[in-house]
Amino acid sequence: MNAFKQLLGASGGNPSIGTWISSASPLVAEAVAHAGFDWGLIDMEHSPLDLMALVHLLQALAATRMAPLVRVPSNDAVTIKRVLDAGATTLMVPCVADADAARAAVASMRYPPEGVRAMSASGRASRFGTDPGYARSANRGLALIVQPETVQAIGRLESIAAVRGVDAIFLGPADLSASIGHVGQPTHPEVMDLMAQVVQRCKSIGKPVGAFGATAEVVAEYRAIGFDFVAIGSDLAHLIRGAKEAIVALKAQDRMHVHSLASGTRTGGDR
Questions:
Q1: Residue 46: active-site member
Q2: pLDDT tens across 86-131, in order?
Q3: Cα separation, 50 vs 182, whole angstroms
Q4: In whole angstroms, what is the distance from residue 181 CA to residue 247 CA?
């Protein structure tokens, strides 16, 4: 069974916790995975990732317990085919504006007769052609998350979610905030209220819904609202935050004990 679907089914009211993989570094991604995240989204939309880099990231994460998701750069059949051939099994598709776009994403992911994905005899997904049953079983092992990213798309939420093959909805508060006139304010009260409405609408139709938050405080609010899965920050953001915290801690000590290569060491009492 698909690893991400298993996480959704096993949440038991406790939203699974993920993070964004934006560094394009297999080593950083693998290290972050060992921190204990349930899932990690490899972001091909807003990071400098090409297909070979994706393969290296998937290989690195295969050695961890973190389920890999991949956000493709666009709802494009060729891109989706190549990402699946590289070994991805759970995709997030951005900018899904209506049910037709959702149906196109589903079709791009699936082999005939359920879709239009072109057959590949030797891709990484089929263990380079050594899995004779891959083509027959592949459709069952996939998961699709779609992103309605504007207020207009949110207005079509139920029809998008009703498309067979759409497994979950994911909200990006940055784009959503921009679409309602609050650019750069993803936690604006109007944005949070709209997201809360989406959660209730998804619950009424039985469709899991997730969201991204930059900080633990924001993600805690999302969990309280009722999101089924949540992401906090990115591998790069965690790296930068840790570095900044270390620098701040050291500079705080400087008030009592200052060391420099130029002047040696002075204590707070030395003048």
A1: yes
A2: 999 999 999 999 999 999 999 999 999 999 999 987 889 999 999 9
A3: 32
A4: 36
List Cβ neighbours of 119 (8 Å cut-off, separation of 6 or more): 111, 135
Contact 90, 79 (CB under 8 A): no
Residue 130: CB atoms within 10 Å: 8
Beta-carbon contacts of residue 255 (< 8 Å; ≥ 6 apart): 268
Q: Are 229 and 7 in contact (CB under 8 A)?
A: yes
Q: Kindly report the CATH number that applies to the domain delimited by 3-234.
A: 3.20.20.60
Q: Which residues pair with 91 in a beta bridge?
A: 70, 144
Which of 211, 200, 209, 142 minimizes the C-alpha distance to 176? 211
Active-site pick, 34, 46, 257, 259: 46
The domains of the chain are located at 3-234
33 touches 119 (CB < 8 A): no
Tokens of 90: 């759970």
Contact 109, 91 (CB under 8 A): yes
Q: How far is the C-alpha of 33 from the C-alpha of 66, rounded, in Å? A: 6
Q: Tell me how far apart the alpha carbons of residues 177 and 164 are, in angstroms, rounded to a whole number.
A: 28
Give the type of residue at 129.
G
Taking the C-alpha atoms of residue 266 and residue 271, their distance in angstroms, rounded to an integer, is: 8
Q: The pTM is what?
A: 0.91
Q: Kindly report the CA angle at 207 between 184 and 133, in degrees rounded to 5?
A: 110
